[in-house]
């Protein structure tokens, strides 16, 4: 039987129908010829093969992990759904191979409803693998299972075996079209039952290689892709890997945060990516990102962090007394995104000439609920102004923006220990709140929101420029950390052995930087960090503040943050030793490298270097910092489309390691991450056509675009 024909049996997986799958009654399920070009590419990282495919109704990511913990997954942007097989640990690492790349499939389910997916051939260099668990559901549940968390029992389905084929298939929990996964042994071999309900795949006698054909399909509603032509401006960096990743993640309804684990909307990821990619994106892509955020705002103007859709939404709603309700659920626990929307909307609708020309029309567009983009944006600006007002009237720690009640996360460092136990994040309070206030004032001054404002709302926004100035002047000093030279030298000498690196040259002058956060009493958490990049990208700090943001942070680790394989996001050397284990190279927000943070630094340093009001000494510092950061970006170029990575120090050298490949790593990194594609806009300063990051060609002026959002009031 042809492998595509055979895959139709996915539609006949129930025990009673399985036997009907034979050559006499099955027709080919390969999808008919398409008028659109398929996007098909492969990325290998950290011992994992990642194969991506997108065409028409099909978008899928196949990944197989080579290690002592083998795993096979196929995930779909449609419904953030996925299928996966986890195998028992092996005595020795096994290595996978992709024998044929994914190709599109479609098939009806047992009720005649269409399922869409892919088929592919893979092989692995072992004669035996034992299937521990097969799972079909929403990626959030697959993510939970992968992290050893409990999953709902109603999503678990038993496999059906016939001959050399094992398959899982079920409807969605509400009876809607569901999911199917079928694995067939190629070239013979057997499937046998084992204790505990497990299945053992065995290669043919005498063979040391298991050869498998995989078909995976989903019945969730396909998303409408943004085509290559509608995605990229001509000035985009000719980096095919990053272009492929961004194209795979871009749909008209939303930009996906990353694959495999985040194949859906995330507000923060969308906003930051849109901002840094803006110079090389077409208007359709920029506005798809902004609209996805605006359409998911809460009634009081908060930005949704993550959406729950498909089967996750069904089960989440059921827990809250709403059975068979597939309405999306939204998570509003993050505070930083609330203050990112306004400055990024202003960067497009006010600062960018292309956006200026479209602003009135875009703001007047209505969503499916009949509300305009302009009215939605007003609600967010009112939230910004209202929450910022107490500190503007009485600058004190108690009036800063705090994590929401009961939450331990609230900004991009959203792991348990990401803020070191702090409750007032630096980036939110020192940078994003004043940036949002300035953006609100810019919208008010331009009159763009006049059709959507009443007199009371206008009054609420009237003082946002003055309030921004208060925040800019009064908030950063609350986060300032100064470490005397002798203490800094002692701290580094004590910390270095725990990090497994040499201490290097001892600091000979006091160190200054901004704390990661403040604790509930207002005490700085003195973890050196990379979040000054937000001030560089969104603010107009004075000389002394820029010195504090840049000078010591860009020193070599463990004094600063810079290693040969990237700029770390945290360094706990100057904090209590009790915090050191929380910020290791195995911690998600520890001494690790996040690709987009480095890109933000280069983009932000460009913004500051375009200013005309800085001293020569500060300009020299910024230029050197940009060169330093770009050098380590170049060193790690093979990793930069991934979400983040870690490192090891071997034989006197740093080497980059994929995060999640070591047993101590807290989780794993995505191979394809939205905000890690920002290098499509941000290039080597020495190789650009223009002088600064936002310039699309040599014909653009050296000065910054007119930044209504950053009018200095100093």
From TrEMBL:
<keyword id="KW-0732">Signal</keyword>
<dbReference type="GO" id="GO:0005975">
    <property type="term" value="P:carbohydrate metabolic process"/>
</dbReference>
<dbReference type="InterPro" id="IPR008928">
    <property type="entry name" value="6-hairpin_glycosidase_sf"/>
</dbReference>
<protein>
    <recommendedName>
        <fullName>Lipoprotein</fullName>
    </recommendedName>
</protein>
<feature type="signal peptide">
    <location>
        <begin position="1"/>
        <end position="19"/>
    </location>
</feature>
